[in-house]
Design brief:
The protein has one domain (2-152). The protein is mainly beta. It has 1 helix and 12 strands. Strands 1, 2, 5, 10, 11 and 12 form a 6-stranded antiparallel sheet that branches. A 4-stranded antiparallel sheet has the order 6-7-8-9, with no helix packed on it. Helix content is 11%, strand content 45%.
Length: 158
């Protein structure tokens, strides 16, 4: 009985390692090319929270300038099978991998066998993502906001 129990636990642990956590949290991520954390301007009223998915602590006014400190992308990974080799990510045709989030310039962050990698030109279903940003107001309040390009000056290439 002990041996079969150990085999089942090993199988469960092995299966858990093949898929990323869900939600997957990419700390420090910025989800598009030229994305940068610096002074941003609220383009509309934006709710601030004490933490991602936390309690409301205030609201930014349209036009208010904040210092963007960092961010994180929270995603629900999408399972996919590689149609071709992606040597830059260590993925071969037929391998199962999980798409985490878009990085920019056609590049996606993916999970394969417990490792995060990036590759270009993924054309399957995109994962559901939420971009949380940590900001500091000029008055010193620090909070988190959901950003859907609701701030100006996020793009260093614009």
């Amino acid at each position: 009985m002990q041996a079969s129990r150990a085999i089942v636990l090993f199988a469960i642990a092995a299966a858990a390692q093949t898929a990323p956590p869900s939600p997957y949290i990419a700390k420090g991520a910025c989800p598009f090319e030229c994305c940068t954390y610096r002074d941003w301007t609220a383009l509309k009223p934006i709710t601030l929270y004490d933490s991602p998915n936390g309690k409301t602590i205030g609201t930014l006014k349209q036009g208010q300038v904040v210092k963007a400190l960092t961010g994180e992308i929270r995603s629900t990974p999408v399972r996919a099978t590689a149609a071709k080799d992606h040597p830059e990510a260590g993925i071969k045709a037929g391998d199962v991998f999980f798409v985490l989030h878009y990085v920019g310039e056609g590049v996606w962050s993916v999970w394969r066998a417990g490792h995060v990698a990036q590759f270009e030109m993924y054309t399957g279903s995109a994962p559901k993502t939420v971009w949380w940003v940590k900001v500091r107001t000029r008055a010193g309040m620090i909070g988190w906001a959901i950003s859907d390009r609701d701030f100006g000056n996020q793009d260093a290439c614009a």
